[in-house]
Amino acid sequence: MSGSPSSPVADFENVFRDFFPRLRGFFRSHGFSSDDAEDLSQKTLWNVYRAWEQFRGEGSLAGWIYAAGRNVARDEWRRRGRAAKAELPSEEIADPAVDAEESVRAKQMSERAAAALAALPVRMRACLLLRVQEELSYREIGRRLGISEATVKVQIWMARKKLRKGMAES
After folding, report:
1. Phi and psi angles of residue 2, each rounded to the nearest 5 degrees, phi first
2. What is the CATH code of the structural domain delimited by 94-170?
3. What confidence tens digit (pLDDT) does each residue in 116-167 have?
4. How many Cα atoms within 13 Å fall on the side-chain side of residue 156?
5. How far apart are alpha carbons 31 and 131 in whole angstroms?
């Protein structure tokens, strides 16, 4: 799907079919529940449909749609942040020592994962992130990066192996 879309209804049906599952995976990878991911995917595609005529084809359609998805995710996290502040405090008293330990462990794990990911070669990291974050097929990743599908599979396999090793060593 490249170039400027022509007929909103005819073209958008294919866009919806192609991007709804990908957006759902995108929102799931950003911490939303399955139900929320589905709702946010629909909201994103509704926003895209309403702005359909504004797409000029200067960039990729996928990039434009994912930018809309990022905006929806950002707005939802902001909305939830405000809603969480407005909620009444819980009557349950949490053990601060347990919360602090958990927080430190989670932060350390996150730092190890980020370091292991950053240590991967660029192409290997790109293949893995396109597969995990955007849920692209091996074929689509190969097309985007200009490499064969077999190379994509090997790169992802090696990336996962190196990440496991990097996480175990830390």
Report:
1. -120, 165
2. 1.10.10.10
3. 878 888 888 888 888 888 788 899 899 888 999 999 999 989 988 888 887 7
4. 21
5. 17
For 151, the token pair is: 């190379």
Long-range contacts of 26-33 (CB under 8 A, 24+ apart): 26/66, 26/69, 26/73, 26/133, 26/134, 26/135, 27/69, 27/73, 29/132, 29/133, 30/73, 32/73, 32/76
Q: What pLDDT does 85 receive?
A: 47
User: What is 110-163 written as a DSSP string?
Assistant: HHHHHHHHHHS-HHHHHHHHHHHTS---HHHHHHHHT--HHHHHHHHHHHHHHH
Query: Domain extents for the chain?
Result: 1-87, 94-170
First-last CA distance in the chain:
43
Query: Two tokens at 15?
Result: 């866009």
Q: 1.10.1740.10, 1.20.1200.10, 1.25.40.10, 1.10.357.140: which CATH number matches 1-87?
A: 1.10.1740.10
What type of residue is 73?
A
Q: Across the chain, what does the average pLDDT equal?
A: 78
Tokens 């957006």, residue located: 23
Q: Please give the structure tokens belonging to residue 70.
A: 């990022």
pLDDT band at 60 (very low <50, low <70, confident <90, very high): confident
